[in-house]
Amino acid sequence: MLTKGEATKKMIIDASAILFSKKGFKDVSMTDICDATNLSRGGLYRHFSSTSEIFTLLISTERSFDERIKANESALYILKSALDELEKEILDPERSLSLAIYEFASIDENKKLFTSLEKKAKKKWIDLISYGIETGEFKDVDPAKIAELILYYYQGIRMWSKVTDITKRSAKNYSSMIIKILTGEEK
Amino acid sequence: MLTKGEATKKMIIDASAILFSKKGFKDVSMTDICDATNLSRGGLYRHFSSTSEIFTLLISTERSFDERIKANESALYILKSALDELEKEILDPERSLSLAIYEFASIDENKKLFTSLEKKAKKKWIDLISYGIETGEFKDVDPAKIAELILYYYQGIRMWSKVTDITKRSAKNYSSMIIKILTGEEK
Lengths: 187, 187
Prior knowledge:
Chain A is mainly alpha-helical. Helix content of chain A is 70%, strand content 0%.
């Protein structure tokens, strides 16, 4: 169970995520977050000193596939469940952090953090693809190349989901394309 | 040859493109464009009534492959020259209009224009892919699916090129991946 402090932190992060996806990064203030969480200024600052700190935590929580790989789960199964999640995100443009990420990353001092997050995200996918090649579930592809395709294609569609209507079919195309490239099979 | 009016219009659009890629859409004013072009307010307004009008023209000028298809050029050749152009754009983040496009498209009244531009861009690629399948140069893929991959993958990498360093290899990966999907060959 979460302690009271942890529960408050989680509540702050959840409420902030909604604000950031609505307004981007630049236009969200600590006052907005107080209003959204019903916390006093002191109550909020006990946990976080800036919107940067909250946003950094929010975008740094991506989990790797390490545990599932160590547990010898099927690579294809891990892939499919990850793609299902991404599909759901694509179809939920209200929760898209693309614009906020863009604004946050455009601030010079955040560039380093971003380069490291991107590296981490690539590594996560490279590890899964390499594992799937090892188990024989995936074709003998270049893991780094496919990892980039997975990440950039996702970012592109996620960005556009905020400005035009992304259909269910386009979201499905995304995952079926990746499954096809990795396994040669239609989903 | 361009008439004097046409040349001025082109000069305005070129100068504005640089401003939009630097500052996004929202933060560019008609005054900024006067400053960048050395035109008087009257001189600028003779050609354009708003930054929206300039931006709309700027992003609406994408040419289709129709003429080249009608001239029976090789589909693979058309594809490769188009991908070369995109690669160059990816490696030139200073000229990336992603943020400006994002901001412009987020304005409600522009949503319709965007939906139609996206449709046009998809059609352009679908036409080329269908043509390549017909000539036997491309594999029997689903043109609409690959068109989405080409567009969204590009948008994603283009967006990220503004916030992290995109390597030459990542840009190459983009085109070689598409060529591989369409022809089965490594570039």
